[in-house]
Amino acid sequence: MAKIMVIEDQTVLLEEILDFLRFEGHEAFGAVNGRIGIEQIQIHRPDLIISDIMMPEMDGYQVLEQLRNDPATATIPFLFLTAKAEYHDTRRGMRLGADDYLTKPFMRDDLITAINARLRHESMVKQHSDADMETLRQNLIHMLPHELRTPLVGILGYGEILALNAATLRPDELTAMGEDIITAGQSLQRLTENYLYYAQLEIVCRDKQKMEHWQESRTDQIGSIIKLAVDELAVRYGRAADVVISTVECTAHIGAIDLKKLAYELVDNAFKFSQAGAQVTITSAYAQGTFSLCVEDQGRGMANTDTAHIGAYMQFGRDVHEQQGVGLGLAIVTRLMDVYGGSVSINSEPGRGACICVKLAAE
Known about the structure:
Elements: E1 3-7, H1 11-23, E2 27-31, H2 34-44, E3 48-51, H3 60-68, E4 78-82, H4 87-96, E5 100-103, H5 108-165, H6 171-205, H7 208-215, H8 222-237, E6 243-246, H9 256-272, E7 280-287, E8 290-297, H10 304-307, H11 328-340, E9 343-348, E10 354-361
Parallel strand pairs: 1-2, 1-3, 3-4, 4-5, 6-7
Antiparallel strand pairs: 7-8, 8-10, 9-10
Helix pairs in contact: 2-3, 5-6, 6-11, 8-9, 9-11
C-alpha cells in the first residue's frame, strides 16, 4: 500500500484520518502545520500528500508551492482537504499544482476514492515513464555507440596512417585525410553539443525558477538570426540553390542563441531527410502577438504514428533508411517550445514531405 502524509491542524480530525488510512493498510504520517509537514515530507518521501489549507505558520498553498519548487518533491500527488470550496480558492490551488480537492465535511468513502484515483493515476504515469525509459535505453544501445564509433574509427584510422606513412604520402592524400578527419570531428562535436544542450533543456524544464528566467528573454533581428542558421547549413549540405526563405522582423520571446538553435535544427531536419535539388522553404511571420517559423521540405515525410512519439534518441524508419544522427534535433525543438511556452505542429505524410511550424509569443 501507499505511504501517505496528512497535514491538518485539527488534532482530532488528523488522528481520525491517520487511523482510517492505517486501517486501510496505508503507512500514514501526520503533521499539525505546514512547517512540520514540510520537514516530515523530506524525511518520509510519501507517495501522496493530503493537506488542509488554513493552518498556522504555513498554510496549504505555501506548502504546495514549496513542494512544487523542489525537484525532489515536485511530482508527489497533492490533495487539498478544506472547508473552503469557493471557485477562486480551487483555481488558486490548481494553478499551484494541486491534483484534487476534497471538501469538509467528507465521507470516508469519498476520501478513499480520491486517494485511490490519485494513486492509480500516478501508477499509470510511472508505467508510461518506465516504458519510455526502456525505449530510450534500447535506442541508446543501438544508435549511440554506432554514431560515436563511426567517426572515431575514421579519425583513429587516418591518424595511424599519418603516423606510419607521413613521409611517403602525397600532398593531395594528406589534404584528403585532413578533410575527412575534420568532418568526423565535426560529427562528434555536433553530437556532443546536442546531447549537452538537450540535457540543459531537461534541467530547465524541471526547475521553475530557471524556466521563468529563460522566459524573460527577448530577441529582435529575427530575420538575420534565422538567415545565419540557414546559410551555415546550406553551405554544409551544398544546397544553397534549394533554399527559399522569407522572414519578418519582430521581437520574439526567446533567447537569441535558442532561436538560432531552433531554426538550425528545423532546417537541418529538412535537409537531412530530403534529396539535393528538392526545395526547402523557410517562412517566418508575425500576427497578433505571435511569431511563427515554418520549414517545409519535399522529403520522405513521416507517418502520424511517428510524429506522435518524437523524443530524444528516437529515429523513425532507421531500419529501412540508412541515416546518421540519434534523433535529438526535433526533440530539442519540442523541448525549447516547452521551455518558452510555445507550440510545435507537424504536417507530414510518408513520401510527401513535411512542414514543421513553431509558434512563440512576440511583440
